[in-house]
Request: fold
Amino acid sequence: MTRPDLLQHLGAAQSERARQGLLRRLRTVESVDGARVVIGAKTLLNFASNDYLGLAQHSALQEGLIRAARQWGVGASAAHLLGGHREEHAALEQQLAQWTRRERALLFSTGYMANLGVLQALLGETDLCVQDKLNHACLLDGARLAGCELKRYVHCDVASAQRQLQSRPERATLLASDGVFSMDGDVAPLAELAALCKTQQATLMVDDAHGIGVLGDEGAGSVAATGLAQDEVPVLMATLGKALGVAGAFVAGSATLIDGLVQFARAHVYTTAMPPALAAATRAAVDIARFETWRREKLQRLIAHFRHGAIERGIPLLVSHTPIQPVLIGASRAASVAAAKLEDEGFFVPAIRPPTVAQGQARLRVALSALHEEADIERLLNALARAVAHARRAMRKDS
Reply:
């Protein structure tokens, strides 16, 4: 018997993806200056960044990081439970709990690790996890890691979620949903999901990676915008590397939840703590996100401007009132052609293709930021109209 070679198997899978025109590639960003990046020696206006409030290069974050690095060094050098938990971490956790109106908060090194840790700690083989079909991959992976039964419901369809919950009434159940969906930009029906979980005695978890800093009073996120309290959304996760411009993630909720995660969330227990200097930079970012309301106000104006201009030009948008504005193209090759045309005109808007989105749902994912100006939006809209038309002509020629 000849044992199959795993690397050959991986190479064959890569070759098949290349054959389908879906191969991904790394692009090195050579420099960043506000909303502009240099890639391949070309200066491009960046519409791919999740830096929604324009904080990633903010001087207050840089100063906080440098100050803390001088005091604590660059790395934490240990897991939180083994001496890696510093004053900067504790202060940030308290600040995040206050911001999200939760009793406690717990830091994780990445959002992916946070979701893996939470689901693995809460769920076991006899439990049920019900999830929106468009949830982020890490929520799905977390359920698989936990070994529970995973059921998925039609995107944002509360009746579909109810049917899945009722299919296993005897099981302890977690219903998990993105707050803002990363590829469509729409917001989950959180109030209806919370009411459903109450009647079905299920626990609701919201991943607010793309809502925190952008939505709600003081930018506290989609859960805050809906007015839901801790007992209605017992598990809240959000990331620090998008609107806050830093890196990492946190989970917020009751003392019971956080104390349990400290004991049982393997992704927290068995990894090095985030650098304390990064925690210090995040503390500065939270204050700016909360209290410099002009950033969210400007962002909302830009979103409205973009959507109005796209409709006028016949650019095919999905319904979204967040900084994530998907331009639906359909065919993967057409999306790649449109993205290349935009790059030729000075814009960085990568194509999003399967398996990140479903077959036939390839798109340009435009991400808006408070760093952009209305003139930038106008230039992008004109270039988008040309790029979409160019892609359509290319597809007709191929057919």
In short: DSSP finds 14 helices and 14 strands in the chain. The mean pLDDT is 96. The chain has two domains: 27-56+293-398, 59-291.
